[in-house]
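Minutes, project check-in
Item: structure for the 449-residue chain
Input as provided by the requester:
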Amino acid sequence: MCSLSKEILVKKNFIIIILSIILILMLGVLLYYFYMYFYNIQNIFVKTGVVIILFFTTIVILRYMLLLFFSILKTIQKSADEEAKIDKIDRKEYKKVTIIVPAYNEEVVIKKSLLSLLEQTYPNLEIIVVDDGSKDRTYIEAKRLEFIKGNRDLKVYRKKNSGKANAINFGIERATGELIMAVDADSILDKNAVLLMARYFDDDEIAAVAGSVYVSNQNNLLTKLQALEYIEGLNMVRNGQAFLKLVNIIPGPIGMFRKSALIDVGLYDDDTFAEDCDVTLKLISKGYKIEFESDAVAYTEAPEHLLDLIKQRYRWTRGILQAIRKHKHMLWHFKKAPSVSLVLWYMLFEATFWPFMDIWANIFMIYLAIVSGTSIFLFFWWSMFTILDMAGALYCILITGERLSLVFYGVYYRLFFIMIINIAKILSTIEEWFGLEMSWGKLDRKGNL
């Protein structure tokens, strides 16, 4: 049975590699014809618009290919180091890990989340649940699981509502572990997640490790598109960044920190809506290194309705922009602090420059198609990015083991999903620019973990 499974896996991987090669060849053909049509344009207005689009398209494709290349190198590096790291951690004493679970109105999911933490294979573990003034039964549900037993215990605290950042700090102040792990209450972890992440901290330069985040509730088109986005747009990007040890955001569902490093940067701040992004930037600006463990997995419940998704991305974008503005003095420190400058410019491009350019390019292409009948440019534009998305998705599925069927959602992904996300980013950027007030906008949980 085992040999049969391996044979099926080898065949699946072979098919994925062949499909990836075909997609890359198709991308090359499309680029060739795109440039051929460009040289035949006579109208100076149209040609200028297409030049601008080509410039930004080239930047985006280079960015994508670089991250993919770094991700492949990181995967090769990780495979080479895997056996040595496992042997090393088996010979050493396990550092104590404190998992902090900030929770606000999470009665639907808190039990599943905590049970996944209790099933962790890591032996020296402390779990602290911080109920941040919930109005439902979150505290009661968590309190039922409270216990103290040897090298493993679960403690539940309740405090007045003051936000996620303060709830995490509340937990850190009571933590006895050398390592701190922050886990969202709406997420469940793979049983080996803590074990896989803790081993990175044998390197004194490592301040934090991010884990992979997968969508648990893949039950409609919207959540399946988010599942594709998570493995390609988030996890692959982090894997590429980790080759340089410059992961720019430790995700809320799964992140581990060296406690001394958090204390060194003043713990979490509550002055942005992206406390995870802010604390990561604080660590990078202090010269710390940030790693990524692709096999340490958290499953989270994604928004199932469009309005909920827009609210979530609106908050994410405004929070990231707030974090960038907070650290804007580091944008031009290419000599003094090149790492944080590079990360900040990358985040600024992703959050503002590219969304505006993408929407403008689509409007311009549609205008060309209507006015001049050159709809071929719109086809080339959409096809190039769709093929790029599908090729990236195939690679990610190859290394993550996610469902192959997600690749085919790449057609819808570029056609309307990214468009919606970019519109949400633009609107949130405008509101942040004018300083309009906003609230956290908590997602209504269904319990589909």
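Outcome recorded: The chain has one domain: 15-449.
No further action items on this chain.
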